[in-house]
Write a sequence for this structure.
């Protein structure tokens, strides 16, 4: 069996989005082109988060191995000429704006891109769960002509989801900031 070798190791066990992505970005900034970073995380969401971030930043996501609940991600740093400037999705809505839309009785579409367990423990009433890692495969369930609010725990995964949808022609989408980590209004619990 081949052993995967990395030039640096980043421990992110016990952390949930956004710290694994933020720490990965910071560590990659300190590395030389061609070096491989191994990121160890226990958050299942890290699989979609780090794969998506790597591709959007221009780095090579080599792959992931899961061992005893620890996801070992391997990412090769790109040459400076191959990296892409990070950009945030420009259209946002605050938690308060989303709550006011709900309270007004207006029918709105909310996509929760967190992992199923996060969604089950509390989500915005009426939100539909489509985890970031499943978004591209389930895009046919969505109507590009409709407006959507995308939410996650802190706005990082939903920002990535907004960019994915925008790249596929969705024009009426907003990233909910700061997301569920600071949602102080009513929540539903369980799977839907």
């Amino acid at each position: 069996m081949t052993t995967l070798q990395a030039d640096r190791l980043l421990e992110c066990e016990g952390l949930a989005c956004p710290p694994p992505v933020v720490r990965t970005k910071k560590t990659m900034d300190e590395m030389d082109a061609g070096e491989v970073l191994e990121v160890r995380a226990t958050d299942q969401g890290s699989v979609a988060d780090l794969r998506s971030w790597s591709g959007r930043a221009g780095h090579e996501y080599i792959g992931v191995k899961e061992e005893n609940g620890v996801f070992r991600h391997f990412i090769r740093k790109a040459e400076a000429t191959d990296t892409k400037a990070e950009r945030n999705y420009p259209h946002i809505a605050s938690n308060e704006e989303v709550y006011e839309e709900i309270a007004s009785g207006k029918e709105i579409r909310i996509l929760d891109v967190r992992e199923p367990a996060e969604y089950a423990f509390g989500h915005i009433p009426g939100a539909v769960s489509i985890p970031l890692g499943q978004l591209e495969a389930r895009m046919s369930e969505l109507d590009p002509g409709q407006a959507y609010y995308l939410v996650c725990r802190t706005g990082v995964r939903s920002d990535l989801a907004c960019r994915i949808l925008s790249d596929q022609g969705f024009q009426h989408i907003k990233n909910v900031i700061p997301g569920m980590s600071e949602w102080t209004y009513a929540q539903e619990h369980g799977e839907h």
Summary: The chain has six helices and nine strands. The helical segments are 19-30, 45-57, 95-103, 116-120, 135-138, 156-167.
